[in-house]
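Design request, tokens follow.
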């Protein structure tokens, strides 16, 4: 584990996230898993950092840990402006409006900030990086959560938007589900 990864993990440990449960593992374990999955795809450092902090302020689905928004500057200083913005947007997105933006595919990409009620407009590069963070967050946890049908079509569209590597990761994850289901019915 490199110094950068230890520095980011150390901050999270200082918040106590290692003691927070998340889909049958620790929240810290999930965050590190998302970071590693993004890194394995070859995504840039700021995207990997955003992945590690993707739910730091809580999300529409996960409220097991929420760092107050007043601490955004502290997170921004730790992981960088762009990574923190991507992490914030992942936390703040209204998922139904985000799914519509993925389906429409038109730039600028529009979705709602569920915390402020404002409309978020993103250019393709930022939107694609947010899609990366959001997709690989789900792919890391879905085998443990066993919520295989939760927004499955939307996640598939996200993978297709990102290209062959993301589609392969999506298919590998969901193939594991189908194999597990076959084992339980035999």
């Amino acid at each position: 584990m490199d110094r950068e990864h230890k520095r980011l993990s150390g901050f999270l440990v200082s918040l106590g996230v290692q003691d927070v449960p998340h889909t049958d593992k620790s929240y810290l374990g999930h965050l590190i898993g998302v970071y590693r999955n993004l890194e394995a795809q070859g995504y840039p450092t700021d995207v990997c950092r955003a992945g590690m902090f993707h739910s730091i302020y809580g999300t529409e689905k996960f409220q097991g840990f929420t760092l107050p928004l007043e601490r955004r500057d502290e997170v921004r200083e730790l992981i960088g402006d762009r990574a923190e913005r991507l992490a914030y947007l992942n936390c703040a997105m209204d998922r139904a409006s985000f799914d519509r933006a993925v389906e429409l595919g038109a730039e600028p990409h529009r979705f709602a900030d569920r915390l402020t009620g404002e409309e978020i407009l993103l250019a393709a590069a930022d939107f694609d990086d947010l899609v990366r963070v959001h997709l690989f967050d789900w792919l890391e946890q879905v085998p443990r959560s066993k919520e295989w049908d939760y927004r499955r079509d939307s996640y598939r569209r996200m993978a297709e938007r990102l290209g062959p590597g993301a589609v392969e990761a999506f298919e590998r994850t969901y193939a594991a589900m189908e194999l597990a289901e076959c084992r339980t019915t035999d």
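Comment from the thread starter after seeing the answer: thanks! Strands lie at 21-22, 25-26, 109-112, 119-122.
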